[in-house]
Amino acid sequence: MFGQILVSGITAGAVYALVALGFVVLHRGTRVVHFGLGDQMTMSAYLVVIAQVFLDAPFAVAILFSLVLSAGFGVAIERGVMRPLRRAPLLVMVIATLAIGAALREGLRASMGPLPWPVPFLLTPAPFTLGGLVLVPANLAVVGVALAVMLSLFVALRFTRFGRAIVAVYENPTGAAIVGISVPSVHARLWGLSSVLAAIAGILVAPLITLSPDMGTIGIKGFAAAILGGFNSLPGAIAGGILLGIAETAAGVYVSTAMKDIISYALLIGCVLLLPQGLFGRAEPRKV
Protein backbone atom coordinates (compact mmCIF):
# COMPACT_ATOMS: atom_id res chain seq x y z
CA MET A 1 0.00 0.00 0.00
CA PHE A 2 2.71 2.49 0.98
CA GLY A 3 4.67 1.74 -2.18
CA GLN A 4 1.60 2.51 -4.27
CA ILE A 5 1.12 5.77 -2.35
CA LEU A 6 4.72 6.72 -3.15
CA VAL A 7 4.25 5.99 -6.85
CA SER A 8 1.03 8.00 -7.08
CA GLY A 9 2.36 10.79 -4.88
CA ILE A 10 5.55 11.21 -6.90
CA THR A 11 3.52 11.54 -10.11
CA ALA A 12 1.51 14.45 -8.70
CA GLY A 13 4.54 15.82 -6.88
CA ALA A 14 6.60 16.02 -10.07
CA VAL A 15 4.03 18.37 -11.58
CA TYR A 16 3.85 20.45 -8.38
CA ALA A 17 7.65 20.63 -8.37
CA LEU A 18 7.72 22.08 -11.90
CA VAL A 19 5.23 24.78 -10.93
CA ALA A 20 7.15 25.43 -7.71
CA LEU A 21 10.35 25.82 -9.73
CA GLY A 22 8.57 28.40 -11.87
CA PHE A 23 7.70 30.39 -8.76
CA VAL A 24 11.18 30.13 -7.24
CA VAL A 25 13.13 30.81 -10.45
CA LEU A 26 11.18 34.01 -10.98
CA HIS A 27 11.09 35.17 -7.36
CA ARG A 28 14.80 34.70 -6.73
CA GLY A 29 15.70 36.95 -9.64
CA THR A 30 12.93 39.55 -9.54
CA ARG A 31 11.45 39.31 -6.01
CA VAL A 32 8.00 39.04 -7.64
CA VAL A 33 5.56 36.23 -6.82
CA HIS A 34 3.58 35.54 -9.99
CA PHE A 35 0.12 34.45 -8.83
CA GLY A 36 -1.03 34.11 -12.43
CA LEU A 37 1.41 31.27 -13.10
CA GLY A 38 -1.21 28.57 -12.65
CA ASP A 39 -3.44 30.20 -15.26
CA GLN A 40 -0.49 30.42 -17.65
CA MET A 41 -0.10 26.69 -17.12
CA THR A 42 -3.72 26.24 -18.19
CA MET A 43 -3.28 28.51 -21.19
CA SER A 44 -0.32 26.45 -22.38
CA ALA A 45 -2.34 23.22 -22.27
CA TYR A 46 -5.09 24.92 -24.28
CA LEU A 47 -2.52 26.06 -26.84
CA VAL A 48 -1.71 22.39 -27.49
CA VAL A 49 -5.41 21.72 -28.09
CA ILE A 50 -5.74 24.79 -30.33
CA ALA A 51 -2.75 23.72 -32.44
CA GLN A 52 -4.10 20.19 -32.84
CA VAL A 53 -7.80 20.91 -33.35
CA PHE A 54 -7.76 24.19 -35.25
CA LEU A 55 -4.35 24.11 -36.96
CA ASP A 56 -4.26 20.33 -37.53
CA ALA A 57 -0.72 20.16 -36.14
CA PRO A 58 0.92 16.90 -34.99
CA PHE A 59 1.19 16.42 -31.24
CA ALA A 60 4.95 17.17 -31.10
CA VAL A 61 4.52 20.33 -33.17
CA ALA A 62 1.59 21.38 -30.98
CA ILE A 63 3.77 21.04 -27.88
CA LEU A 64 6.55 23.11 -29.45
CA PHE A 65 3.97 25.70 -30.53
CA SER A 66 2.71 25.94 -26.94
CA LEU A 67 6.17 26.22 -25.39
CA VAL A 68 7.32 28.96 -27.77
CA LEU A 69 4.18 31.03 -27.33
CA SER A 70 4.27 30.54 -23.56
CA ALA A 71 7.85 31.78 -23.37
CA GLY A 72 6.97 34.78 -25.53
CA PHE A 73 3.96 35.53 -23.36
CA GLY A 74 6.14 35.49 -20.24
CA VAL A 75 8.59 37.94 -21.79
CA ALA A 76 5.67 40.13 -22.91
CA ILE A 77 4.36 40.26 -19.33
CA GLU A 78 7.75 41.43 -18.09
CA ARG A 79 8.20 44.02 -20.83
CA GLY A 80 4.63 45.29 -20.98
CA VAL A 81 3.46 45.08 -17.37
CA MET A 82 6.14 44.39 -14.79
CA ARG A 83 8.93 46.59 -16.15
CA PRO A 84 6.75 49.74 -16.10
CA LEU A 85 5.79 48.80 -12.52
CA ARG A 86 9.37 48.16 -11.36
CA ARG A 87 9.29 51.17 -9.01
CA ALA A 88 5.76 50.50 -7.80
CA PRO A 89 5.09 48.96 -4.35
CA LEU A 90 5.30 45.19 -4.19
CA LEU A 91 1.57 44.95 -3.50
CA VAL A 92 0.84 46.62 -6.84
CA MET A 93 2.95 44.00 -8.63
CA VAL A 94 1.15 41.19 -6.81
CA ILE A 95 -2.22 42.63 -7.80
CA ALA A 96 -0.99 42.91 -11.40
CA THR A 97 -0.10 39.19 -11.48
CA LEU A 98 -3.49 38.30 -9.99
CA ALA A 99 -5.16 40.41 -12.70
CA ILE A 100 -3.15 38.67 -15.43
CA GLY A 101 -4.24 35.29 -14.10
CA ALA A 102 -7.90 36.31 -13.88
CA ALA A 103 -7.82 37.74 -17.41
CA LEU A 104 -6.33 34.51 -18.79
CA ARG A 105 -8.81 32.34 -16.92
CA GLU A 106 -11.90 34.25 -17.99
CA GLY A 107 -10.55 34.73 -21.50
CA LEU A 108 -10.19 30.96 -21.86
CA ARG A 109 -13.66 30.45 -20.44
CA ALA A 110 -15.12 32.88 -22.97
CA SER A 111 -13.19 31.60 -26.00
CA MET A 112 -12.91 27.85 -25.31
CA GLY A 113 -16.02 27.36 -23.18
CA PRO A 114 -16.40 25.96 -19.67
CA LEU A 115 -16.58 22.31 -20.76
CA PRO A 116 -13.46 20.09 -20.60
CA TRP A 117 -11.27 19.42 -23.63
CA PRO A 118 -9.48 16.10 -24.18
CA VAL A 119 -5.68 16.14 -24.26
CA PRO A 120 -3.75 13.08 -25.50
CA PHE A 121 -1.48 11.13 -23.15
CA LEU A 122 2.25 11.00 -23.76
CA LEU A 123 2.01 7.20 -23.43
CA THR A 124 -0.83 4.72 -23.01
CA PRO A 125 -2.94 5.14 -19.83
CA ALA A 126 -3.42 1.35 -19.60
CA PRO A 127 -1.93 0.16 -16.27
CA PHE A 128 0.37 -2.80 -15.71
CA THR A 129 1.64 -4.51 -12.57
CA LEU A 130 5.30 -4.68 -11.55
CA GLY A 131 6.43 -6.06 -8.20
CA GLY A 132 2.96 -5.70 -6.74
CA LEU A 133 2.70 -2.04 -7.80
CA VAL A 134 0.18 -0.79 -10.34
CA LEU A 135 2.06 1.43 -12.79
CA VAL A 136 0.68 3.57 -15.60
CA PRO A 137 2.99 4.35 -18.55
CA ALA A 138 1.42 7.80 -18.96
CA ASN A 139 2.21 8.61 -15.32
CA LEU A 140 5.75 7.29 -15.68
CA ALA A 141 6.18 9.57 -18.68
CA VAL A 142 5.05 12.55 -16.57
CA VAL A 143 7.66 11.76 -13.92
CA GLY A 144 10.38 11.08 -16.49
CA VAL A 145 9.80 14.29 -18.43
CA ALA A 146 9.57 16.35 -15.23
CA LEU A 147 12.85 14.93 -13.91
CA ALA A 148 14.56 15.52 -17.27
CA VAL A 149 13.39 19.15 -17.28
CA MET A 150 14.59 19.70 -13.71
CA LEU A 151 18.00 18.18 -14.47
CA SER A 152 18.31 20.29 -17.64
CA LEU A 153 17.52 23.42 -15.65
CA PHE A 154 20.24 22.74 -13.09
CA VAL A 155 22.78 21.93 -15.81
CA ALA A 156 21.87 25.13 -17.67
CA LEU A 157 22.22 27.26 -14.53
CA ARG A 158 25.63 25.78 -13.76
CA PHE A 159 27.30 25.40 -17.13
CA THR A 160 25.81 27.92 -19.59
CA ARG A 161 26.52 31.61 -19.96
CA PHE A 162 22.86 32.45 -19.56
CA GLY A 163 22.66 30.29 -16.45
CA ARG A 164 25.66 31.96 -14.88
CA ALA A 165 24.13 35.35 -15.59
CA ILE A 166 20.96 34.25 -13.79
CA VAL A 167 22.95 33.04 -10.79
CA ALA A 168 24.86 36.34 -10.69
CA VAL A 169 21.59 38.28 -10.65
CA TYR A 170 20.31 35.95 -7.93
CA GLU A 171 23.32 36.63 -5.73
CA ASN A 172 23.83 40.35 -6.32
CA PRO A 173 21.90 42.31 -9.00
CA THR A 174 24.01 45.44 -8.50
CA GLY A 175 27.26 43.52 -8.78
CA ALA A 176 25.96 41.73 -11.86
CA ALA A 177 25.15 45.05 -13.51
CA ILE A 178 28.61 46.41 -12.67
CA VAL A 179 30.33 43.53 -14.49
CA GLY A 180 28.21 44.10 -17.61
CA ILE A 181 25.24 41.78 -17.18
CA SER A 182 21.99 43.30 -18.39
CA VAL A 183 19.72 42.77 -15.38
CA PRO A 184 16.52 43.82 -17.24
CA SER A 185 17.34 41.30 -19.98
CA VAL A 186 17.85 38.56 -17.39
CA HIS A 187 14.54 39.49 -15.77
CA ALA A 188 12.75 39.14 -19.11
CA ARG A 189 14.34 35.75 -19.71
CA LEU A 190 13.41 34.63 -16.20
CA TRP A 191 9.78 35.45 -16.95
CA GLY A 192 10.06 33.42 -20.12
CA LEU A 193 11.76 30.52 -18.33
CA SER A 194 9.18 30.52 -15.54
CA SER A 195 6.40 30.47 -18.13
CA VAL A 196 7.98 27.52 -19.94
CA LEU A 197 8.24 25.53 -16.70
CA ALA A 198 4.55 26.21 -16.02
CA ALA A 199 3.73 25.28 -19.62
CA ILE A 200 5.47 21.91 -19.32
CA ALA A 201 3.60 21.25 -16.08
CA GLY A 202 0.29 22.11 -17.76
CA ILE A 203 0.96 19.89 -20.77
CA LEU A 204 1.94 17.00 -18.49
CA VAL A 205 -0.99 17.24 -16.10
CA ALA A 206 -3.80 18.07 -18.55
CA PRO A 207 -4.29 14.47 -19.75
CA LEU A 208 -4.46 13.24 -16.14
CA ILE A 209 -7.19 15.63 -15.00
CA THR A 210 -9.87 17.74 -16.64
CA LEU A 211 -8.56 20.51 -18.89
CA SER A 212 -10.83 23.41 -18.07
CA PRO A 213 -10.30 27.13 -17.40
CA ASP A 214 -10.12 26.36 -13.67
CA MET A 215 -7.22 23.90 -13.96
CA GLY A 216 -4.91 26.73 -12.89
CA THR A 217 -5.83 26.12 -9.25
CA ILE A 218 -2.93 23.65 -9.35
CA GLY A 219 -0.80 26.77 -9.22
CA ILE A 220 -1.79 27.12 -5.56
CA LYS A 221 -0.31 23.69 -4.89
CA GLY A 222 2.86 24.67 -6.70
CA PHE A 223 3.03 27.79 -4.53
CA ALA A 224 2.50 25.67 -1.41
CA ALA A 225 5.30 23.33 -2.55
CA ALA A 226 7.63 26.30 -3.05
CA ILE A 227 6.87 27.58 0.46
CA LEU A 228 7.31 24.10 1.93
CA GLY A 229 10.70 23.57 0.30
CA GLY A 230 11.93 27.13 0.78
CA PHE A 231 11.10 29.97 -1.56
CA ASN A 232 14.75 30.76 -2.30
CA SER A 233 15.84 27.16 -2.90
CA LEU A 234 15.57 25.41 -6.26
CA PRO A 235 16.25 21.93 -4.80
CA GLY A 236 13.76 22.82 -2.08
CA ALA A 237 11.08 23.49 -4.68
CA ILE A 238 11.53 19.97 -6.05
CA ALA A 239 11.56 18.39 -2.60
CA GLY A 240 8.53 20.43 -1.57
CA GLY A 241 6.59 19.32 -4.65
CA ILE A 242 7.36 15.63 -4.11
CA LEU A 243 6.57 15.81 -0.38
CA LEU A 244 3.29 17.61 -1.06
CA GLY A 245 2.28 15.05 -3.67
CA ILE A 246 2.98 12.15 -1.29
CA ALA A 247 1.23 13.89 1.61
CA GLU A 248 -1.85 14.53 -0.53
CA THR A 249 -2.02 10.94 -1.72
CA ALA A 250 -1.52 9.54 1.78
CA ALA A 251 -4.24 11.82 3.16
CA GLY A 252 -6.61 10.69 0.43
CA VAL A 253 -5.96 7.02 1.20
CA TYR A 254 -5.82 7.05 5.00
CA VAL A 255 -8.21 9.90 5.86
CA SER A 256 -10.54 11.03 3.08
CA THR A 257 -10.34 11.98 -0.58
CA ALA A 258 -11.59 15.43 0.44
CA MET A 259 -8.34 15.87 2.41
CA LYS A 260 -6.25 15.77 -0.77
CA ASP A 261 -6.93 19.44 -1.43
CA ILE A 262 -7.14 20.53 2.19
CA ILE A 263 -3.67 19.17 2.95
CA SER A 264 -2.05 21.71 0.58
CA TYR A 265 -3.52 24.64 2.46
CA ALA A 266 -2.84 23.06 5.85
CA LEU A 267 0.84 22.51 5.00
CA LEU A 268 1.10 26.05 3.59
CA ILE A 269 -0.30 27.62 6.77
CA GLY A 270 1.69 25.34 9.06
CA CYS A 271 4.95 26.01 7.23
CA VAL A 272 4.43 29.79 7.29
CA LEU A 273 3.73 29.67 11.03
CA LEU A 274 6.33 27.14 12.17
CA LEU A 275 9.05 27.15 9.50
CA PRO A 276 8.95 30.42 7.54
CA GLN A 277 12.16 29.65 5.62
CA GLY A 278 10.84 26.25 4.51
CA LEU A 279 12.64 22.94 4.75
CA PHE A 280 15.62 23.92 2.59
CA GLY A 281 15.42 27.71 2.50
CA ARG A 282 17.69 30.12 4.29
CA ALA A 283 17.13 33.48 5.88
CA GLU A 284 18.16 36.35 3.63
CA PRO A 285 19.73 39.35 5.32
CA ARG A 286 18.19 42.70 4.43
CA LYS A 287 19.75 46.11 4.78
CA VAL A 288 17.61 48.69 6.55
UniProtKB/TrEMBL annotation:
TM helices/strands, residue ranges: 6-26, 33-53, 59-77, 89-108, 128-153, 165-184, 190-211, 223-247, 262-280
Q: Which family does it belong to?
A: Belongs to the binding-protein-dependent transport system permease family. LivHM subfamily.
What compartments host this protein? Answer: Cell membrane
Gene Ontology MF terms: transmembrane transporter activity
Q: How does it sit in the membrane?
A: Multi-pass membrane protein
Enumerate the UniProt keywords alphabetically. Answer: Amino-acid transport, Cell membrane, Membrane, Transmembrane, Transmembrane helix, Transport
This protein's source sits in the domain of life called Bacteria
List, alphabetically, the GO terms of the cellular component aspect: plasma membrane
* Biological process (GO), any one: amino acid transport
| UniProt keyword DNA-binding, yes or no | no
Major subcellular site:
membrane
Q: What is this protein called?
A: Branched-chain amino acid ABC transporter permease
